[in-house]
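To make this tangible, this section ends with a sequence with its structure tokens:
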Amino acid sequence: MRLRNKPGAKEKMKQYPHIIVSNPSEHKGKWNQVFNNDHPIHVEVGTGKGQFLMGMGMLHPEVNYIGIEKYDSVIITALERAIESEQPNVKFLNEDVTNILDYFDQGEVDRLFINFTDPWPKNKHEKRRLTYKGFLDLYKQILKPTGEIHFKTDNQGLFEYSLESLSGYGMSLHNVSLDLHKSDIEGNVMTEYEEKFSQKGMRIYRCEAKFR
């Protein structure tokens, strides 16, 4: 999918360094200093337009949230939402998740969210899926031993692949739902895609995973 560039996006992001943090590698191992507290750190990879993270931040002021999104034309909407809400516990990185080890120290993150990521359905693109073992290698390093991965998607094929990938990596699976909105799982905050797909009657798949 080709995304349209938004004129002035880079310049606007530079005006709000307290929301979209530049040079995140400088804060590796010191994110609690950025937030000025010792709250748990939860990270969303591929945060999109920020609806999920802003919603989580509002519900859980006791948690620090960081969203990673590489596309300027997408993260600018997240910035606009953050400016309007003025939530001090939500920040964003305009970066690529493949470099996540540059931004977080070993065991610095308490929870990682993967929501409605590109399914990359062709076999030759398997390594691009955010639940591929290569990415799990990265997540394991930044997550605490008690850390969790929470995954949601509308794509059944990706969900089945991810369950196999996570369990095959030796992770334990919890709260697996084949139809999230008809389950008894509480506290769900919807992403933009989730709202769109659920309104069409599509199932939302969800699971939680922990490293053993």
User: Anything to note?
Assistant: The longest strand covers residues 143-153. The chain has a mean pLDDT of 94. Strands lie at 41-45, 64-68, 90-93, 109-115, 143-153, 172-177, 205-210. The chain has seven helices and seven strands.
